[in-house]
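Problem 3 from the worked examples.
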Amino acid sequence: MKKALMMLVMAGVIIIFMGANATFAGRISNRQIIQQKRIHQGIRTGELTGCEIRRIERQQHRIQRQKKRTWSDGLLTPRERLRMERKQDRANRHIYRLKHNDRIR
């Protein structure tokens, strides 16, 4: 029951992220969507525990907040783009490590 509820919550979060990201163009938004898909796949296969899911989602939420602040003036400077890409690189490595740590629920 908990797993099904968690899946529904995560599906809702993914849909929200995908809808919000559709308004922004470029690699940053696409990477965010891809990372959400990888998280969802990790949940579906059981590679991620509940605690790991919360940590990753918190990190994704911080990236999303930063992206909104970055785009608030309607301009993405090269420095802002580099900063966002670095955050996403860290998140990408984090997702990979948690999915491949051989931890079982």
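Problem 4, a separate protein:
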Amino acid sequence: MRVCGRLVLPRKQRSLDLTQVSEWDEGKVQRKDDYLAAEEPLEIRIGKHPLSVTMRTPGDDLELAAGFLLTEGLVQRREQIATLEHDPGDRENPGALRGNVVRVELAPDAMPDFDKMRRHFFAASSCGICGKASIDFVRARVMHPPNSDFRLDPEVLVKLPDELRASQAVFGRTGGLHAAALFDARGKLLVLREDIGRHNAVDKVIGWAILENRMPLKDVVMLVSGRGGFEIIQKAIVAGLPVVASVSAPSSLAVQLAREMNLTLIGFLRGRRFVVYAGDDRLAKSG
């Protein structure tokens, strides 16, 4: 059930491309089909105003746009998104931008002053904060410390990577996508999204939570398949997440922000081993 607004679903989008390659194996060469993770630009517009262009894997674009609006500080709640839909494209040029533009209409209290906006957002798939005026601009965003009462059993935590990998449908065929997933305190998978950009995958799962009216995510764990960078941590804090785990290393700035905001940050979550960089008080064995 939707609280407000309108969601218009697009045509089925393709997250995989098939291509011909030459494979060299022990001196033998053979031609074969190979799957690639699709990558296309997505433009997010507020009304007629271009806001952001991001390179992403097509699919779950409305969630990506909703998550971006929240984590970039343009909206604070679901009700501020009045309309969220794919732009049909240029009718005189069929196929132009078709499926690659999301148009958003915001409630009056959320409309930005475009005349005073110092910049538009541009995010490349490899770097979520490319184009921002400075890291200080990101850090200046209003963020509140996450739920200090949330507790997670380490025995639950170590099972999450296997659940993540088992649910990565596109990664299993391409090996080329990042994933982000949300789990409850018992380890139940709530949602998983894949994208060629790790910050896009995070925006997609947060966007899912917004559109499902599950914000803030105060009793939820987020697991990301790559490293835990600074922007992923700030997005998690904006969404209210108390715990973020990654299978790789966090950055120094991510650790600093997690400690400042009392977010539990876990890295190198592999097998039955992990490293806690911040907020170890939330990890407690049950019983």
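Solution to problem 4. Residues 78 and 210 are 6 Å apart (CA to CA). The mean pLDDT is 80.
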